[in-house]
Structure formats: structure tokens, C-alpha cells
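Hey team,

Filing this mostly as a record. A colleague (T.K.) asked me to run one chain through the structure pipeline before their review meeting, and I want the input and output archived in the tracker in case anyone asks later how it was produced. No errors, nothing strange. Just documentation.

Input sequence:
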Amino acid sequence: MMTRPNAGRQHDGVPGGRAGRTAAAGAEFPSPDPAGFLPLSSCRWGVVVFPGTNCEYETRYVLGTVLGQPVRFVWHRETDLSDLDAVVVPGGFAHGDYLRAGAIARFSPVMEALSAFAAAGKPVLGICNGFQVLVEAGLLPGAMLRNQSQRFLCRWVNLRVESTCSPFLAACRPGQVLRMPMAHGEGCYYADPETLAAMESRGQIVFRYAERDGRVTPDANPNGSVGSIAGVSNAAGNVLGLMPHPERASEALLGSDDGRALLAGLLAVPDAGGTPAFPGSGAGNEAGA
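Output structure:
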């Protein structure tokens, strides 16, 4: 595994924000800390488990076995995350998704600790149901609605990287297209026009559903999400959520290893040319390639 000296690294978290760019306009968005997030040679991960979570083992496998990082499960009743550098809220059906996806999970004891964790600038990633939980908890903007088709959908999709303002996207490039599977019934993202405009201006829209060549078309949008949005971040960039599953696209044997670029973003180490790289990198294609 690739490592680098940890000059200036704070073991209890990742400081600051990270400047990024967007695919559409190429505009730069300043982050709260101009020094940027520091890549980590090792990152202590937590994977939150609610009753009904069903993607925790594959998430732990990718982080622990594929990426070689220390990782532990975080039961939803825990309230101490001080031993962790980053947290993933994985997919599943937390608390059975009763009422609506994530509506009950947001009241679990761990969520207060996770809110404080995020407020301290530490990285939090929500995948599928985890994205829904983070939206319900107010850690990410917008709302999740039933798929436009009113059906549960399970298929491969293409995601165009719109912004690299989040440290999770340190190993990605604006315009890059990543191939991952999705599986959800409430993945139609919505935010009002004013909120969307503010998010766009700050680089918070990080993924859009697209064709393999990077074109954003109605046919490429599987669930009717406004603006074909597949993933967003908070204003600081340290909290990110997406509906597709990067952990299910972490090894070529699975049909794609593009998801590894996202899960390993915090470990990205710039090469001699300044391009972020990590062990086994090379995921995804440039739009139009």
C-alpha cells in the first residue's frame, strides 16, 4: 500500500476544506480552509450499523481488505466516535425504512455524535440509504422522494463527476465518468430552485447521472432526480452522499472498480505530475473518451 509522511496531519481528524473544480464551467470554489484537506496514509474508518442495514460487510471488506485500512463497525447506539478519522453510513433499510427512508434512523443515538463529528470537519460518507439518513438528519441539503417510476430499481449507472470540492473526490477528475450499480426505491433527489442554485455555485453537486460518454440525458436519469443529481456534499465538502454503491464497484471482478476512486479519495497521494493516485487507481473515463 502506498503511504506518505504525515507532516502536519492531525490524528483525530482531517482539517479544513478542499478547493475543487466543476466539470461544467471549470470554475474554482474556495473552501473554508485554503490549506485543503490533507491526504492520509492511513485512515481509521467507522461503518455505522442500524437495525436493517445490509451493506455493512461489503463496505468493511473494501475499506479493510481492498484498501488495507483499519475499520470497525459502529452500532447505532454508540455515541463516541473519537477513535475514528472518517465514517461511512452504508446502504440498507435502516429501521425498515418505515415512514420514509432514514426518518427513524435520524433519531438513533449515533446521529448526534455523527453530527458533531461532521461539524468538526471530519469526513462522512453516506451511500444509498446512508445518503437518505444524512439528508433526513440535516447533514446534507435537499430531500429524497420515491423513484419517478414508483418502482425499486437495481441496475448499473454512469456518474459524471461534477465537482471535486470534497476530499472523497481527491482521486477523481471533473468530467470523469464512473460506472457503479444502484439499488433503491427512494432515490429521486429534490431541492427547490433557490437551494439548487446555491449548491451549484458552491460546487456541492458532485455527481450527475450520465451516458457513458458523459452526456447528461433524460434516458440516463434512472429515478427522475432533479437535474439528474446522483450525489451532493455539504457546503464544507466533508460530508458527501450518493445513491449508487461504490463498494459494489471496488474490484474488476465485480464488473467495475470505479468505486474504489471514491472510497480511497482520502488516501490519494499526488504523483510527480500533481495527479492524485492511490493503489490500484485508474478508475473511470473522461467524458467523451
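Quick notes for T.K.: The radius of gyration is 17 Å. The chain has a mean pLDDT of 82.
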